[in-house]
Every structure is written in structure tokens, then in C-alpha cells.
Amino acid sequence: MKKVLILVNHDVVIYNFRRELVERLLDEGYEVYISSPYGERIDDLIFMGCKYIEATIQRHGTNIIEEIKLISYYRSIIKRIQPDVVLSYTIKPNIYGGMASSLAKIPFIANITGLGTAVEHAGVMQKISILLYRMAFKKINTVFFQNEENMRFFSENRIALGKHHLIPGSGVNLNHFQPLEYPSDKTIEFVFISRIMKEKGIDQYLEAAEYISNKYAFTRFHICGFCEEAYEEKLKIMQEKGIIKYHGMVRDIRTILAGIHCTVHPTYYPEGLSNVLLESAACARAIITTNRAGCREVVDDGENGFVVLEQNSKDLIEKIEKFISLDYKTKKKMGLNGRAKVEGKFDRQIVVTTYLNEISNISNLK
């Protein structure tokens, strides 16, 4: 039985966005190992048939001792499992998993799910990251990119040249995320779905929510996602004032989208390709988002939503007001346009098939 080892920094990275790939691998007889910090989705993955190996990853840590420990940890599990191929997602599993796979001479496929702030901005951390990527990806088989801007950055910095492959993000499961009935227009409901952190544009969303809700009594603003400590008190106060409704982590986002007219995603974080936008569009919801890599690929301005300037609350307010001013039929049509767009370009089966082909090519070469 062939073995696949998957390295990630969070269980949701696999279960929510790569579950279909895991299912296909299991169906085709692969033994699938997943290395990740423990989370509630791990039990679901084990139930599917995966084998789990717990990992400790400091997602934003820079302690050199902890980083060396992670490389050593990956080396030890690769030596023990002897996988036929290693798949990795997110920055640290990509870099340190790549180094460990290279030392063990195991085929390796990485997915660039976004550059991260350290790599996007010029400086010492960017130079260090480029050096680490060059070392990690020196013997890599394939590097998957979710947007052209990230792929261009790797090309310009001569990282894994000739191994690049562009895919439509994580894709979206079009059977799971079906068009939802459009809600009535007695109220106009907006939602922010993301980790609640500054770079995701939460400050701009909250400013817009306060202004719009005071001006238009029929509007409602929802927030879903894990809240970083810095925003806990602010959300509590704004909810008490009736400006927002905070739902916390939502296991099935379709239950929220069913009552929503438009998803607002004012991020300026270095995205790969936004799953929030893909899932919202697949459910036939209009989207308002920033004109940056990872977001612009999903929105056609004026067709299935609106584009806003980064870190610009005034522009966000104007675009929300523009959406409010549309008649009901046009709002609904925007959502349907989004569904048509993801059907044509972002079906998750495209991503699954591409992965299976790459893994099969590696197996044939062995």
C-alpha cells in the first residue's frame, strides 16, 4: 500500500479545503497520514480512515530552537513512515517539510497558500524566507500556486524554477456549497467571515458597520470566525450596542450564508486564494472585497460584487451603500453571477485531479 504524508499547521486546512483529495487518495488505496496540531476536525479525519500524528507548530513563532525541533520532528516521522510522497500546505510545513523530505530523498509537493506578511514586505525577514525556500525546494517535485502574483514572486527570486504549477486555489465543493435561496429584503444582511485580525480588514468592516447601521436601520452586520484577543472587548461592546452580531466559530457556514445578502471581505492579508469568497459565491451570494491577489480572481467588479481599496473605510462604506441601493432582482443576480463564475473556474475537482495526476507521475517514476 502506497503512503502519503500530509503536513499542515491546522486541522481545518485539511478537513475544510482538502477533504475531497483525502477521500480520493483513500478510495484509490493510499494510506494517508496527517501531521498537524490537534483540533476538532482531526477526529473526523481519523473516522474517514486517516492516520494521525500530532505536531506542535508555533504558527507565528521565530524561536530558532523551536524551528530546528520542527525540522527534526518531520525528519523522524518521515524516517518512521517512509512515505511515497509528502504533501505540504502553509509556510512552516512547506519550508521545514521540504528540508526534511529532501534529506530523506522523498518526493515532495508543496502548496503556496499565501506568502505571509514576512515574505510580502521587503526586509530582513523576506531575505531569510527566500533563502529558506530555496533550500527547502531545491529538490521539490512540484510547487502549486493559488495565484499568479505568488508564482511570479517565486520566479523572480529563482525558487524551484521549472516546477511551478498554477491551480484555482483550493477550489470549492460545488455539491456541498449549492446556491441558497435568496433571503427577503425586509433587512439587508452582511457578513464578515475570517479570523478576526487586523490584516483581514476587521477595522474597516467595523467602521462601516457602525456608520451604515446608524444610517440605514434595516441593515444587519454579522461576524464569524476565531477572534484574536486584541478584538474580544471591541466586539463585545459593539454587539451590546446592536451594531454587529458575533457568531464565533461556525462549523457549517452555509447556515449563516442562508440569511445573508452579501459577504464583505476587506482583507489586505497576503492570501493564496480566498476560500471565504469561493464558498460565498458558490452559495450565490454577492461579494465585496479588495483588489489584491487572492481576491480579485473571484470578483468581477459590478458583476458579482464590488472591489474596494485596501484599508479604506470610506471606500468600503461607499461600496456597501452602492449594494444597498440596488434593487432586489439585481442583488440576487449578482449572487447568481458569482455561482456561474466558480462553476466555470473553481470546481474543487480540478484541484483534486491535478494532485492525483502529479502523485501518479511520481509513482510511475519510482
Explain the overall architecture.
The protein has 366 residues and is an alpha/beta fold. The protein folds into 2 domains: 3-171 and 347-365, 3-Layer(aba) Sandwich (Rossmann fold), CATH 3.40.50.2000; 188-345, Glycogen Phosphorylase B (Rossmann fold). Helices cover 47% and strands 16% of the residues. A 7-stranded parallel sheet has the order 3-2-1-4-5-6-7, with helices on both faces. Strands 10-9-8-11-12-13 form a 6-stranded parallel sheet, sandwiched between helices. Helix 1 (11-27) packs across helix 14, helix 3 crosses helix 4 (91-104) and helix 8 (202-215) packs across helix 12. The longest helix has 18 residues, at 64-81. It is globular.
List the helices and strands and how they pair.
Elements: E1 3-7, H1 11-27, E2 31-36, H2 40-48, E3 51-54, H3 64-81, E4 85-89, H4 91-104, E5 108-112, H5 117-120, H6 124-136, E6 142-145, H7 148-156, E7 164-166, E8 188-193, H8 202-215, E9 219-224, H9 229-240, E10 245-246, H10 254-257, E11 262-265, H11 275-282, E12 286-290, E13 305-308, H12 313-325, H13 328-345, H14 348-365
Parallel strand pairs: 1-2, 1-4, 2-3, 4-5, 5-6, 6-7, 8-9, 8-11, 9-10, 11-12, 12-13
Helix pairs in contact: 1-2, 1-14, 3-4, 4-6, 8-12, 11-13
What keyword list fits this structure?
366 residues; seven-stranded parallel sheet; Rossmann fold; Glyco_trans_1; Glyco_trans_4-like_N; Glycosyltransferase family 4 protein; glycosyltransferase activity; six-stranded parallel sheet; 14 helices
